[in-house]
Structure formats: C-alpha cells, structure tokens
Amino acid sequence: MLFASERRGLAPAWPDQGPARDILKRHIGSVVRALAAGGDASLEETAYRDRAAWVLDAEIRVNLVVRDDSPDHLSVTVDQETGLPVRPTGPHPPRCVDPLATGEGYVDEPETVTFSARALEGHSGALLIDPLAIPHVWTVTDDLVVTVSGDLTPAELVDVAESIQQSE
C-alpha cells in the first residue's frame, strides 16, 4: 500500500517552508533513479491493476555482509501516471528482512502469526515484542510489504494488519 500526499499553497523548497521530507518519499523515487543509472537496466511497458506501468529490471550489487541472502537483481513496477513504485519484486521476495529488527548483533525470535482477514488472509507474518525493538508485526505477500508498529498490544498489531484492504 502506497501513501501519496498533495499540498497546495505551500512553497516547494527553501527559503520558504517546503513539504516535509517524509511526505515527498524521496527514497522511493531514488530506486527508480538508481535502476535507470545502472546502465544495463531494462524497461518494459505493462499494466498493473488496469493502469499503465513500467517494469524496470536491473542487476544490483550484492550485500557482502549477508551475501547468501542478498539478491543480485531487482525489478520494480512503476505507475506511469504518478511515477511511484507500486510493486517491488526480486529473485527472493521471502528473504526480505525485518524492517524494525533490534539491530546487528542481536538475534530476534519473532512469533509466527497467520492473518485471517482482508488483504493478508492466509499469509504468515512475524510478530516481535522485545524490549530492544519497537513492537511490530510484518509480512511480505506477492503484492504487499506490510509493517505495523507502535504502542499496541500483540493482538492490536495483528488487528491493524488485518484491517488493510487492497485497492482494486
């Protein structure tokens, strides 16, 4: 699920107040720029959920710290109208790592949960409640990467994740 925002009547940049960095989501667009700058990236026109899109595919550098779990190529489906990535894919999507893990040097032991409603129905996720981590639940499906975190009970984290509906 992507978040987009529109602001009116606000200067786009310095010296006047501009939009907050988190609203612009510049790190998302950087994926597209990085693929395009890669040199041997390919671009293919396609449709995603009845919208015109591109599929960008490129070889990427392998992470030498976790070589066995690091993909060597990345494909991203990008909506042509908005320019926003709508579906990142790769050779090993299940090898995504916990986005809110406690950090290097710590071994997390998340509880496996199975979601029973809406977009995540039937999918497994990882629920981590640990003093060194932000309480969260996360999962990866063919279409979504979902993380829910915050000052919630384990049951509330799962309830929020199960409330996600995938748009048509």
Q: How many helical stretches? A: 3
- Main sheet specs: 4 strands, antiparallel
Shape label = flat
First CA to last CA: what distance?
11 Å
* Count of the separate structural domains: 2
Brief overview, please?
With 168 residues, this protein is α+β, with helices and mostly antiparallel strands. The chain contains three helices and eight strands.
Fold and architecture overview:
This protein folds into two domains: 21-91, no CATH class; 99-162, no CATH class. The protein has helices at residues 21-24, 26-37, 154-162, and strands at 42-48, 51-59, 73-79, 85-89, 111-114, 124-128, 136-140, 145-149. The model has no long low-confidence stretch (mean pLDDT 76). The strands form two sheets. The chain has a four-stranded antiparallel sheet with strand order 1-2-3-4, covered by helices on one side. The chain is flat, with a radius of gyration of 18 Å. It has three helices and eight strands; from the N terminus they run ααββββββββα. The protein is 15% helix and 28% strand. It has 168 residues and is α+β, with helices and mostly antiparallel strands. The longest helix is centred in the N-terminal third of the chain and has 12 residues, at 26-37. Strand 6 and strand 7 (136-140) form a beta hairpin.
